[in-house]
Specification:
metal ion binding, heme binding, two-stranded antiparallel sheet, 5 helices, 163 residues, binds protoporphyrin IX containing FE, mainly alpha, transmembrane, Di-haem_cyt_TM, membrane
Amino acid sequence: MALLLLGQIALGLWMIGLPKDGTGLRASWFNVHKSWGMVLGLLIVLRLAWALLRPRVAPLPQAPALQRAARGTHALLYALMLAMPLSGFLGSVYSGYPIRFFGLRLPTLAARWDGAKELLSSVHYWSAMALIGLIALHLAAFAYHQFVLREPLLQRMRAAPPR
Ligand code: HEM
Ligand code: HEM
């Protein structure tokens, strides 16, 4: 999922630079982004449900402030992972263009509404920027715990939770 998400972010940033030259290249990459974005949205909801319903491994023993920082960052990562597909989808609904899911045209849910599209586009953009920053922080924290403090984080991810 991390790879899919990073690929989706890279695709989004790349495709917005494509020219509007009438060849359809820009539109077809937008459609790829929308289709995978909707798949990711569904996977993220499943991932979150799994994380909430499953018994949790006890947090690492560390200073309460660091524990709060880790919990807060993880919660924000989840919030942004939900905000991305939601703002992308709703923004596209109000754009007036039909949304295609891997070529299949989805029913039109609402008429074109430029104000809503603009607002949702900025939510999409700024959530992406925040997500990139938090992923960088998350990876730095991971590398610090795993390789500097030598705590067994990857093993924790596979560990059976307590019954
Ligand atoms: C797109 C990139 C990523 C996102 C959005 C992300 C998001 C998250 C979230 C939300 C959690 C909290 C899980 C929970 O407790 O419910 C988490 C935990 C964790 N992530 Fe990531 N992650 C990403 C990439 C990675 C990568 C590449 C690694 C390293 C291989 C990694 C290592 C970990 C570890 C070790 C934990 C568990 C921390 C603990 O021991 O409690 N993450 N991640
Ligand atoms: C996890 C899911 C998603 C991620 C990480 C993601 C990421 C991005 C990024 C980084 C950009 C470029 C920055 C920007 O202009 O906002 C972008 C643009 C865009 N995305 Fe997404 N996206 C996701 C889901 C979706 C979905 C589901 C749709 C529509 C169904 C969508 C539609 C768009 C559109 C139309 C743009 C062009 C800029 C605009 O009109 O707002 N995205 N996306």
